[in-house]
Amino acid sequence: MQFVDKARIILKAGDGGNGAVAFHREKFVAAGGPDGGDGGRGGNIVFVPDDNMSTLLDFRYKRKYEAPNGANGDGGNRSGKSAQDLVIRVPRGTVIREFESQDVVADISGDEPVVLLKGGKGGFGNAHFATPTRQIPRFAKLGQPGEKMEVTLELKLIADVGLIGFPNVGKSTLLSVLSAAKPKIANYHFTTLTPMLGVVAVSQGNSFVLADIPGLIEGASKGIGLGHDFLRHIERCRMLVHVVDVSGSEGRSPIEDFDTINSELFAFNEALAARPQIVVGNKTDVDTSFEAEFRSYVEKKGYTYLSLSAVTRKGTQELVNAVWLKLKELPAVEKFEVTYTKPLPQIGSKFTVERTDDGFSVDAPWLERILGTTDVDDYESLLYFQKALSDSGIVAELEAQGAKDGDTVEIGDYQFDFIR
Ligand SMILES: Nc1nc2c(ncn2[C@@H]2O[C@H](COP(=O)(O)OP(=O)(O)OP(=O)(O)O)[C@@H](O)[C@H]2O)c(=O)[nH]1
Ligand SMILES: [Mg+2]
To answer: What pTM was estimated for this model as a whole?
Structure first.
């Protein structure tokens, strides 16, 4: 299966249904009261984590996701049906960002479903607008549009511990002996092509998640080998286990290997490079003549060093214990903070009024949204809108700036005559 960990999709929540204009009719009753029902709510866009998914591949084939619209209201006070939410399943650890700003909208790593976009509210039917002085309301409100957003999805796996090191040093072998995971293991470079997770049991009820990623080489941060892209999957790991082949089986120096990987880490993300590391010298069943020098090198730098043979399982239990001890001191897996804020202000918020060559122009995005749901050809509907205009203080501001009856007032794409 192809591993895809980035995608870009377009989301649109459902529109609210329109309210109905209808009047009660009955035999022998000349003109009944208004009984137009409300429109139904549009469907939300909801994200849930799915632990059976491990890639964002599906989102390469389908790019547009729309929740259904609410149904329109009907006569006889019948409300339109609200639409069902559109539930989108993603692998756990998927971070959703608004495309333009790249602000984080959600991090789908908990168990709770996340309502990302809200469906539009249904419009009120005319039954809502009957008042003692307005007995025949010939208007209803249109449903509000559902929210829409273009987003990028990025998978950042959730694991406590990340395995790093050169290719062929035995990272996948270690994962396979510590957990039930069955990664591919072979005696050549870049056997592992995609990240893999395994659960490591420590003692009854205690376990941690270990992530194995493709090997790194010098220049990975410049795209050499498989590059450093996969490092993003261990970006939120609480700590790292740095696996080094201390047997010299490939003719390299363990000390140089260790420094190379650390500087590649640093080039990718300084915070990741600063994460606690336990260093393991692997393949000690082959040759240990380089080990003493390497051990004192890393211990002098302040790291914990453990001697290991993944194949004979020498030292594996000590490693599990040491990792568990360290994890107990460390904060939980990092969740991405939501940095995105909805740009649409609420009704009654700020506006500006400016003089133009032939009248006035009002800048108030929230008002344009109300206008979008107002039937401007309907007198009473317009009255309703004008009430919003005066309640917000815009009329007063226009008058203060000298607006007179008949002056042109521009609001977004609309033009009105000013009438007091
Ligand atoms: N002798 C010996 N061989 C080992 C040990 N651990 C792993 N190997 C061998 O080393 C080779 C590479 O092991 P992998 O686990 O695939 O290594 P890797 O680090 O995951 O490699 P990449 O996925 O390519 O980055 C395999 O042939 C393993 O059998 C060990 O402790 N001793
Ligand atoms: Mg591997």
So the answer is: 0.73
Domain boundary among 156, 184, 205: 156
| Residue whose CA is at the smallest distance from ligand 1 atom 3 | 283
Q: Are residues 82 and 212 in the same domain?
A: no
Residue 10 has pLDDT above 90, yes or no: yes
How does the average pLDDT of the chain come out, rounded?
88
pLDDT at 245 over 50: yes
The neighbouring-strand residues paired with 243 are 280
C-alpha separations of 195 from 112, 268, 331 in Å: 25, 17, 23
Which of these, 89, 9, 3, lies nearest to 46 by C-alpha position? 89
Helix, coil or strand: residue 244: strand
222 found inside a domain: yes
Confidence of residue 345 (pLDDT cuts 50, 70, 90): very low
Return the higher-pLDDT residue of 33 and 149.
Answer: 149
Could you tell me if 332 and 305 are in contact, meaning their C-beta atoms sit under 8 angstroms apart?
A: no
Q: Using a 6 Å cutoff on CB, does residue 249 contact ligand 1?
A: no
Residue 356 CA to residue 409 CA, distance in Å, equals: 9
**How close is the Cα of 11 to the center of ligand 2, in Å?**
37
Q: Kind of pairing, strands 239-245 and 196-203? A: unpaired
Domain span at residue 298 reads 161-327
> Which tokens go with 70?
């609410």
The tally of domains found in the chain comes to 3
Which pair of tokens denotes residue 183?
Answer: 């990664």
* pLDDT score, position 259: 96
Q: What is the pLDDT of residues 85-122, one digit of tens each?
A: 999 999 999 999 999 999 999 999 988 999 999 999 99
Same domain as 179, residue 283: yes
Q: Is the CB of 285 under 6 A from ligand 1?
A: yes
Same-domain check for residues 228 and 173: yes
- Distance CA(137)–CA(36), nearest Å, equals 10
**Nearest Cα residue to 12 out of 95, 82, 106, 86:** 86
Query: Per-residue DSSP letters for 196-219?
Result: EEEEEEEETTEEEEEEE-----TT
Q: How confident is the model at residue 237 (pLDDT cuts 50, 70, 90)?
A: very high
Q: 396 φ, ψ to 5°?
A: -60, -40
Pocket test for ligand 1, best of 163, 171, 173 (most atoms within 8 A of CB): 173
Distance CA(162)–CA(200), nearest Å, equals 12
What are the tens digits of pLDDT across the range 194-213?
A: 899 999 999 888 999 999 99
